[in-house]
Amino acid sequence: MDQWFKFTPHSSVHKGVPGRKPKPESRLTRKLAENCARKSSLQNLNDISECCRKQCFKVHTNLIHLQHLRNQYWSFAKDTARKQWFKELLLPGVLDELEPEEKQFTLNGMAICYKFIKSVFGCSNNMLIGIKGTNWAQAHISITASRRLDRTGIPHHLHDFTKREEIVLWLNYQHQFYELQPDRDEVLLPWSFKGEVYRQYVKNPQVGNNTVTHGREPCTIQYFLLVWKEDVPGLKCRRYHRFMICDTCATLNAKLLCRSIEGEARLLYQRAKDQHIRDVKEDRYFYGMRVMEAKQYPEDLWSMVIDGSDTSQWGIPHPATRTHESQKGKKMGCKVYGVIVHGHFACCYVLNAHMPGGTNVTIECLHRTFLKLRAQGKKFPPRLYLQLDNTSKDNKSRFVVAYLYMLVCCGCFDEIDVFFFEVGHTHCDADQLFSRSSIYLRDKDIWNFEQLCHHLFNSCGIIQFVEMVNSLVPWKQNVEELLVPKSRSAGIQMYRLLRIKREGSEVKYQVKRSVHEVNGPWTDYKSRADHCQEVTVDNIPLTSQIFDNFKKPYVIPPLPVADGKEEEYRDYMTCINACAPRTHMGFDDLEVSAPVVKSLVDEVETMRRGKECPFQWDTSLHSNPQR
To answer: Are residues 80 and 128 in the same domain?
Structure first.
């Protein structure tokens, strides 16, 4: 065997040997080699014959000491350490609070000029300005400053700290206006390319009412992108999105990407896109103002936002480490709805995806949240701001309007304003709540719905309540006969601001196209100014007495049966049996894990049979509102 196999140590292999891999070289070695090459290219200390009118080179005659300092300067592999050493050498005992003009470089107690320093050490003006410069720049000179290095070990930014700070300030300002992602710690900008973002920075460098560039020329696009990558990595722009995007944005992007469109036509599309993005930004701005107003004056109004999360990745049971065995069969889907009452708390409601949803889910979440606020001793304020997702399936329908109409008729509120973001731009702080939960649940084993509720409760600090919802209110089924027919409610999709307000003994329901029509008239669905939209037949007010006639139950259908075979039921049980060994291994005691597996079996059996849930609300919230 020794005749045909021989081990050759890698350390004995050199670059010159053909057919062998080169000896690996670390980043530190490359950096020190680069420093050595740059030091050897400097002028010899004996040849320095001019600097300034004071002739600094004639004062410092100890060339051995200067050579030692030069060698020490180029021995640092990290620029932060070199800056700190350089600062202590050239500005000994100088206070950082002094203005840059009052600081004087010295060496061995004697003043020296910029040109002499650059000739001796080979440093740049930016290095010297960074040592002397602004307070923000000096905060990044210390050895403990954490600045990511690029592949060569050199920091991305060695100069112009003030301009860098302005870029970061402008980019961070965009966080509050655009799309918070529900499953990642990111904010998605409405532009498709980073070049468009830079153009917006040059065109409108505003942070609030202040211009961040202070009347000087903006930076180059290369520097802008470097600062963006280094300091604001959570701000993204994508041409292709994971979620559905706004139709207006998609149409305008397609036109602007067409190279055959030039001249005035291209400017027209560009102005249209800029105006559309300004409208989106104003929507976010108004939403932020409403949140601030609710936090400042909790006795006068409440601000609430409700949204649902895409929980397709959280199928129950859900092991953190997936295997072929754990993916067998079919998992039970779940739905998670988040409610934030600004200035008070946030809560989550978990549902089995087998339950029919729609408008009943939104109304159930609202009712349960109002009960929690009432249990905390909080009285209903005169006004309610409600931010809903712009979808007709769950929120923008005559049934949700009827429930809010009933709240005003019962005296819970005097006015309710309902707001909708534009379709494709609906992500807000509720999605950021789901983002925190998604990141937290990434490495968690979730064996049943109870554990999902437990992990959701621990995923975010503002979540005070997590509740498993086993049945919904049959609101849609029982109140439909009291409402005007669907044909007379057509047109609600065009409006993004709804208002239900009590004026004397009358409750009026009116709409506006959007929040941008601040001084515009309130209308009905036919855009008739000062007209009210009908909610109920003959404008009959909805009071708590309607609950006496709620006879239709909420029906959860059984699992389907095809040709006498319960295929779906069998798939659910296959998944539970495949994950049962992993479930038992996740607990120390079989007495603890057995009930977990049994709860899954009971849930599937309930889905198999289906059930009817009668109306079981606590109606004292509407019959006796606490004001």
So the answer is: yes
